[in-house]
Amino acid sequence: MSTIKLLAFAGSTRTDSYNKKLVRIAAEGAQAAGAEVTLIDLRDFPMPLYDGDLEAASGLPENAKKLKQLMIASQGFLISSPEYNSSITPVLKNSIDWASRVETETEPPLVCYRRKTVCLMSASPGAFGGMRGLVHVRAILGNIGACVMPEQIILPKAYEAFDEKGALKDPVTQKSILDLGKNMFEFTRRLHG
């Protein structure tokens, strides 16, 4: 059986992001189950806001091409994203939009999303745990051809949830995030194995 490759990232670029910590734990769970996981930081892929005139004049920015190739090379994505004003974060939406663009006449549309699995999670200081934002992320990715796993986890009051090493203080919650990563591996393996 071929190796299951997953791309893991947060929809936040903040250095001490709760969502970077959360997706790292899920990635550990997926790796322990047998996945090959590439963990990236969207801060390392800065891009201008999507602009059709810019695309027509210059094509995709280099960082959009790099991100898109990482996405194409993966069977699925582990995404942990906060909510901004009850919706998707600008950096995540912009990354999704740029990666969705075709580069050649022969490239299939939405090649880096169709039949890709997605596992969603969110950490937030608020009581809703980022849940409202995930509704929009799920709708966007589902509408462009991705298979979003039904199971997701939200982590409210994230400011008190992590220890100094980035692990979750509550062992039950830590295990649930590790299991989420494992379940993503199994979900992807059933679709692509």
Rounded Rg: 16 Å
CATH architecture: 3-Layer(aba) Sandwich
CATH superfamily: Flavodoxin domain
Query: How many individual domains?
Result: 1
Shape: globular
Residue runs with pLDDT of under 50 for 5 or more positions: none
- Overall mean pLDDT: 96
Helical fraction? 40-55%
Task: Output the CATH class name.
Answer: Alpha Beta
Number of helices: 6
Topology:
Layout: E1 5-10, H1 18-33, E2 36-39, H2 52-58, H3 62-72, E3 76-80, H4 90-99, E4 117-123, H5 131-143, E5 147-155, H6 171-192
Parallel strand pairs: 1-2, 1-3, 3-4, 4-5
Features:
alpha/beta; Rossmann fold; 193 residues; 5-stranded parallel sheet; single chain; globular; 16% strand
Describe the protein's architecture and organization.
The mean pLDDT is 96. The chain is α/β, with parallel strands linked by helices. It has helices spanning 18-33, 52-58, 62-72, 90-99, 131-143, 171-192, and strands at residues 5-10, 36-39, 76-80, 117-123, 147-155. 40% of the residues are buried. A 5-stranded parallel beta sheet has the order 2-1-3-4-5, sandwiched between helices. The radius of gyration is 16 Å and the shape is globular. The protein starts with a strand and ends with a helix. It has a single domain (5-192), classed as Rossmann fold, CATH 3.40.50. The chain is built from 6 helices and 5 strands. Helix 5 (131-143) links the parallel strand 4 and strand 5. The longest helix has 22 residues, at 171-192.
Quick summary of this structure?
This protein is an alpha/beta fold and 193 residues long.
